[in-house]
Description:
It is a multi-pass membrane protein. This protein is mostly helical. It is 85% helix and 0% strand. It has five helices and no strands. The longest helix has 30 residues, at 53-82. The model has no long low-confidence stretch (mean pLDDT 82).
Amino acid sequence: MALLSQLPLLLFTLLNSFLYQRVRERLRVAFSLIFILLLFCLTAALVQVPMQPDTFFSVTMATIWFINTFGAVLQGSLFGVVGLFPPRYSTLFMSGQGLAGIFAALAMLLSILSKSQPEPTLMTDKELSLSGLK
């Protein structure tokens, strides 16, 4: 799973250095956010669909790949925007990135500590993520 999450970040962060010359920043940010939201909704909906565990795992890994792909484009674009502002804003942006990492780690720890069945744990993770969107 770590490979599926970090490899697209690396590849598309590199690709983003070429992409910024051809695609406007507003489009990159908008399409990245839209596709991340759509893929997240797909994954959240698949928790309720009865399917084989191997199939669910494969689909989830594919969505992780694509979410991280669009996340890399989004993150690179946002760093480009923040780079136009004074250094104070860069510091705040990096602090926000760190806080998001802490939130993700805490959610993972809470999921591990709950020790419930896999399906309710997946649903709890999705509900926790959705509560962050409200």
